[in-house]
Specification:
- 90% of the residues lie in helices and 0% in strands.
- The chain has helices at residues 2-30, 32-50, 55-85, 91-123.
- α2 (32-50) packs antiparallel against α3 and α3 packs antiparallel against α4.
- The longest helix is centred in the last third of the chain and has 33 residues, at 91-123.
- The termini are far apart.
């Protein structure tokens, strides 16, 4: 019996990854902002490769990219859920959407600051 339980746990674990990967694919396919963030991330990674970033700099850049994508994904999830629950204009729904959008702005601004600290000294003579 324990092997059966373990096998079911592994199957559920794999299924949860499939759901997560499907969500990421839907997010990137359907959200304009996700495509913009993806283009920015590719540009930053290519520039980092060209400038030969240190391992610590790569960690900072990777964290910022993940931070922005996570914030944008949560924003999308909140907006989708809010629209499904209350499709008409409602002040609390508007507040939730504004706060979620604000979180994305904070994440993006943080990424710009970190990116500036990492890249500007390497680009200036």
């Amino acid at each position: 019996m324990p092997q059966v339980i373990r096998r079911k746990s592994v199957i559920k674990f794999i299924q949860s990854f499939r759901c997560a990967l499907r969500g990421i694919a839907q997010f990137i396919r359907s959200e304009r902002q996700a495509k913009i963030h993806l283009a920015a991330a590719v540009t930053v990674v290519a520039t980092g490769y060209w400038l030969e970033l240190s391992p610590v700099e790569w960690i900072l850049i990777a964290f910022c990219i993940g931070f922005v994508f996570t914030a944008e994904a949560f924003n999308t999830a909140i907006e989708s859920l809010a629209d499904a629950v209350h499709p008409d204009r409602h002040p609390l729904v508007a507040k939730a959407k504004d706060v979620a959008a604000g979180a994305v702005l904070i994440a993006a601004a943080t990424a710009v600051v970190v990116g500036s600290i990492v890249f500007i000294p390497k680009l200036l003579p």
